[in-house]
Amino acid sequence: MYGMSFISFRLRLFLDSCVRTSHILFLLSISCFSSALFAETADNKSVSLAQRVYVLVNEDSTDSQRIAEYYCQQRAIPQSNIIRLPLSTDEVITLDEYVRTIHNPLLDIFLERGLVEGIVHSEIDPWGRKKMSVATHRIAYLVTTKGVPLKFTVSKEGMSPEAIKAYSNNLNKEEASVDSELSALLFNYYSFFKGAIKNPEYGSVDAASKKISRVLRVARLDAPSLKQVLKIIDDSLAVESYGLRGRAYIDLGGPHAEGNEWISRVGSLLENANFEVDYEKTKRTFNYTDRLDAPAIYVGWYKHKANEQWLDRSIRVPPGAIAYHLHSFSASTLRSERKNWIGPLLAKGFALSFGYVYEPFLGLTVRPDLFFQSLLSGQSAGEAFCVANPVLSWQSVLIGDPLYRPFAFSLEEQMESEATGIFSSYRQLNQFYKNKSLFGELEAVELGLKSSFYEPNIALMVTLGTILLKEGRSARVIQLLRPLAQIKHFELEDVPIADTAAQLLRKAGDNESAMRLYQNLLFAEKLPKNLEIKLLERALVLAYSNRLIDFSFKINKRLLELKPIE
Description:
566 residues, 2 domains, four-stranded parallel β-sheet, single chain
């Protein structure tokens, strides 16, 4: 995927930046007036951010129009900010179609509405694009919708398989994400289709407060189904009102150290933000045998398609959840619930993600650590993406509401508010880690034990039980976890937690309660094969120690069915 040299790319970025002096002087004269005008407009409290959000619609797609109208209604965006164009309903279009049906018409509309200031040129470039030298603009975000083409390509007719592969693995290829190309729309006098353009907002810690540059911030409301897109909108708004709740899952073990460092830093950021984080550090990825409960945040790599647990609808995802899997073609299509990564994650219920339509090369991918650092500081998804994205006119696409601020509602506000939703008790888990950082582990455990009495949470109980066992407080472990043995039914996502609880009870000396937990977990409902085998093998040890001959026989029989002796 990612072996490469950046010399030619950096040289081209330098040449792109060497523009004609006459244009610079003219644009500076415009900018002295218009940038002040637009800066004042942006800072004017009477003009909300929502009034500067524009939504691109395919007028030949019912879904596209429905999404735009609903999003504008929910976010108080003027309906007049919907831009309708007759577009192809295909996900993939040609470069010529992109220029003819999207680039040129959209630029004309921006000019007609006075959204852009600069010099309009008479010439057409080699790709047929109208040319303009832009000084400034007043567009906060351009939001594309399901039904607007996802990517464009060039004809490879007559090319050998070797030549096609070489083109795909080339830094100067013309094919790109429509959204990423649109983000460079206002660079167009000095830009080329071949390769990427450096993002001037990349790495900026204060992108939210910066004056508007020529970057057009673009996000996409898209998913395999209309219902799933509408849920993204609803969940994003809801979480801003009661907070993002759940755990974090960090999957390391990818092919390059640099990518592992980025993703590992995400885990550290989330730990500092009081999230409980599970790490998978081997070459395998998370599967059914691992904890699966309340995945508010998932970040991982490097597998070409989503694991089965991310396809399984019976494992619930907290509203507003965020997911990113680093893979070259993770967003190759958004219309399938099973192919690649982004489509399955959105179908499962994640509200925010980003990925790539063609090979991006590791050094030109979005930095997940910068993305989460920005989100955790209170910035919106659109702001965070712009800060974390090194290049424009390339392969990336942001899926979700750009106005979404997943951490706008603080933990303090969550603890003071009324519990709502099936994941509400996970705020107690976050509070435990905050208390641990403030008061130390011993005090945090005591506070956690009190809160688990008033608002029970299995995840917190298991965390507390693990610490208590390390401290040698076995009786307290049994007192805390024994009631779980009375639960007759567990959701699939809670089965691995119950397994952990059973093991804690066994180590604390309560084999009877541990055995009862396994009896409730096994044989009642169908489990994924690898998870069932894990539970059976652990239960068998307890069954022998408890001298449960009939149950031992039943376990052995089932194990032979799952793992026949050859």
